[in-house]
Amino acid sequence: MNEKYPELIRESERIGKPMDLFWSWFSLNIGIMGLVYGGTIVSFGLSFIQALVAAFFGAASFLLIGYLSLPGKKGGAVTFILSRASFGKKGNIIPAILCWICLVGWLAVNVATGTFSLNTLIGAFGVTITDITTMVSLVILVVFILGAAVVKQDILVKAQTLFSYIFGALTVVILAVLIPKTDWSVLFAMENGSWLGGVLPAISIVIAGSALSWAMVASDYSVYQNPKTTSDRQIFWYTVLGSAIPLFILMVLGILMTSNAPEAMASDDPIAGLARQMPSWMVIPYFFTALGSIIPPAVISLRSARLSLDAMNIQVSDRISVVIHGLIMIILPVYVIFINGDFLGAFYMFLGYVGICLAAWASIFMADYMVLRKKQGYFPDDISGDQTYNPVNWITIGIWSLSVLIGFLFTNTPWFNGPFAKGIFQDNSLGVLLAFAVGFILYFVYAKKQVKNNENVREVK
Question: Which residues contact 145 (CB under 8 A, 6 or more apart)?
């Protein structure tokens, strides 16, 4: 650790290989939520071909994460440390809070999804699923996640990789079983939905739930790549392919399952609906490994949430952090499962709120790297060291706030209806993409002006 710049990663630690990126992102994107996304796409009333198009472009959104991985190599720090360059060290508290909210939200999503998966697993043994068994499943899952949080990182990564291999292999088996049984004539005879009012919103949902949600850690893996031997092209493509390939395959499987039984995604428990489309002998091993693949990402989110508290200058012990996040992992899923009763509806609402704020931040982070940092680099004093240096960039915060406001004006949720959330903007996440576009354009113009005027731009020696 550099005593003057403690947040920068030491050169001795930056020894990663490009293939490490592929498997890291592969393991993070091969999970049960891919099936849910596939079912969600079909729910927009699309034909089979349209659903495949939506899945392809949804998975292709990881091109964004591939590009946002490049700053890690350039700056030698994780994503939210690099974000200080554009927001300022104190101004960066705003996206840090956003990051924490997103992380605990995804913790809740993982726990809720895992609870449904555990219920499905228990039901496969002939046990009747009730509210009591569901609550027991939830508590068991939370205990496992909290217990795994004390496991060393290298062991956790090995376990995650193992479950990814098994889960991926079983997914291929299910595809091999399902494809011959599929009535393709019926599938291809499905009527087309609206390209503008159906396909585009479906793509926006996938982007908001996948690529944009991973934007907050995009550089956290690439920062450990060897900057002398690893090219930007390698970082970009290994990240994109490792993320997009498993997600696309799982969404295709979800599309096939839901197309064969549209009611699967209409229930309060979409995981059970999907399970009914599988061969009975496959349910137990598939959902056992699905649970295994859910726990490591949940642990990573738990640990990252702890670091986000530090970034907000909230100092708590590890024990208190576990208690706080443990309660959140129980309370939020209890609301979604038992009170709200609409998992997908609550999920979309979460994406609508947090996705807009995160999209606006990601667009600024991307434009800042593209215009300024790619050539000039990250000046160490801007992102680390003395906290009185580069405290707040009010222009950046203003651009972020305006982008968020515009995104909300075009978004409707059960708790908030934007005045312009009508037509193609109704009941989807297009407001998220709009917030990203506005933030990117405004900051791009601002950064170009900085370059032109040669203001606040210094060459990193």
Answer: 111, 295, 298, 299, 302, 329
CA 376 to chain centre: 29
Nearest to 443 by CA among 149, 175, 83: 83
Distance of alpha carbon 449 from alpha carbon 362, whole angstroms: 20
The tokens of 16 are what? Answer: 């990663």
Q: How far apart are the first and last CA of the chain?
A: 19
In degrees rounded to 5, what are phi and psi of residue 342? Answer: -135, 90
Q: Where are the beta strands (DSSP E) in 361-456?
A: none
Has residue 265 got a pLDDT over 70?
A: no
Q: State the Cα–Cα distance between residues 166 and 266, nearest whole angstrom.
A: 29
Average pLDDT, the chain: 85
Q: Greater confidence, 231 or 325?
A: 231
Question: Cβ contacts of residue 169 below 8 Å, gap of 6+?
Answer: none
| Gap between the Cα atoms of 94 and 131, Å rounded | 38
The span from the CA of 129 to the CA of 141, in Å, is 16
DSSP 446-461: HHHHHHHHT-S-----
Nearest to 78 by CA among 178, 174, 220: 220
* Mean pLDDT score, 185-210: 87
The C-alpha angle with vertex 214 and arms to 4 and 76, in degrees rounded to 5, equals 25
What pLDDT digit, counting tens, does each position of 326-362 carry?
A: 888 889 899 888 887 777 777 777 777 788 899 999 9
Phi (first) and psi of residue 176, to 5 degrees: -65, -35
Q: What is the rounded distance in angstroms from the CA atom of residue 218 to the CA atom of residue 24? A: 11
Contact in structure between 50 and 195 (CB atoms under 8 Å):
yes
- Please state whether the predicted TM-score (pTM) of the whole model is above 0.90: no
pLDDT greater than 60 at residue 238: yes
Answer yes or no: are the C-beta atoms of 217 and 75 closer than 8 Å: no
